[in-house]
Specification:
The protein is α+β, with helices and mostly antiparallel strands. It is built from three helices and six strands, in the order αβββαβαββ. The chain has a six-stranded mixed β-sheet, with helices on one face. Helix 2 links the parallel strand 3 and strand 4.
Length: 140
């Protein structure tokens, strides 16, 4: 039996959903439930509009921060560390033992390290010039 393999330029939500569901089923069968929970902390302006914040998830006893953005005019006010701390506290409540994050931004790297994150991996020249750095932190 020969299978049809296709390259699809752009998003194919049906294909993506089928692949994700198959992978989730495999991982649960092999490693047990992930207990995946999304986590979002919104930073809002005085009018209530989201202007930044943190987005990630907890799963398998770890917090992953996928997105963290502070608008330029609010940087230097310790909002990044505050959001990270809030996410870490929520992760502890969910039973997490650690947190991880990645960045290409050297300024963010310094902040994460000041917040107790340690480097555990790098991809040098990730986009031709920048280094993609992976960091982790114990939450116990």
């Amino acid at each position: 039996m020969e299978h049809d393999i296709q390259i699809i330029d752009g998003a194919d939500e049906d294909a993506k959903s089928a692949i994700l569901q198959a992978l989730k089923t495999y991982n649960i069968d092999r490693f047990g439930p992930a207990e995946w929970q999304d986590l979002t902390i919104a930073l809002r302006d005085p009018d209530g509009h989201v202007i930044g914040g943190l987005s990630g998830h907890t799963a398998r006893s770890w917090l992953y921060t996928a997105l963290l953005f502070i608008p330029e005019h609010l940087r230097g006010q310790r909002l990044g560390p505050k959001l990270l701390g809030m996410a870490e506290e929520q992760a502890r409540k969910r039973g997490c033992i650690g947190a991880f994050i990645d960045t290409m931004n050297p300024d963010a790297l310094a902040i994460y390290q000041k917040c107790g994150y340690e480097v555990f991996g790098k991809l040098d020249k990730f986009n031709g010039t920048a280094t993609l750095t992976y960091l982790k932190k114990s939450l116990v």
